[in-house]
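Problem 12. The chain below contains 241 residues. Write out its predicted structure in token notation.
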Amino acid sequence: MKIIKNRVRFFNSTLSRNTQKSLYLCGFFALAKTEFLLYHIGMNDEMIKANIAKNISWYRKEKGMTQAELAEILNYSDKSVSKWERGDGLPDICVLATMAELFGVTINDLIGSEEPKLPPPENKSPQRLLILLMSMGLVWLVAMLGFFAVELITPGMSRAWLIMMWAIPLSCIVSIVFSELWWPLIPRFISTSSLVWSMACCVFLTFSLQNMYMIFIVAGVVQVLVTLWYVFLHNRRVRTV
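Solution.
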């Protein structure tokens, strides 16, 4: 400690009096600003909650979303969204950023006390559905080209139509990918279930083996597991606070 004091005294002795005064003033104002910000934040905690509650509710309704739909996108429960909109709690900064992107506004718009601004009109659902349909159409285009290629190369092949059948599970895989990116649990569950049963049908039609009907029993077991998995995801989202 004595060594540190001596070094500080030596440092101060190398500075002019005006420089020392400037440093002391800068330190004083920095400390005062910090204390003011802490006091200001503490005094406006309830006001911040009220602003966020009002803005989340307004932008959610402007998007035509229910609390449950917003909660599902955020992977939270609808009770959490209701608590935020009542001002009984605050979402963390990551959730605020996600909501700001979803509503097409900034985080300041969600926190500020100004009247909520109408975000620029943007409806991505038709665009996303169009992208999904185009992607699935590309799968079917490739399947059709493969079918015609087989017909041209081996005209006598009687099972070339199976190429078109296998386009169904491939389309389901494309649907699963986009559902995971953009849509809630129900479309994802439907896409996954469609994949299970279409795969079972394709395997049954492709391979002429004894007792091949057992593939549908396997598909039934897989369907039960898929259902339990999505029930688990739903319950985990509901329990999230």
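Discussion. The longest helix spans residues 124-153. Students who got a different answer should revisit the alignment rule from Section 12.3.
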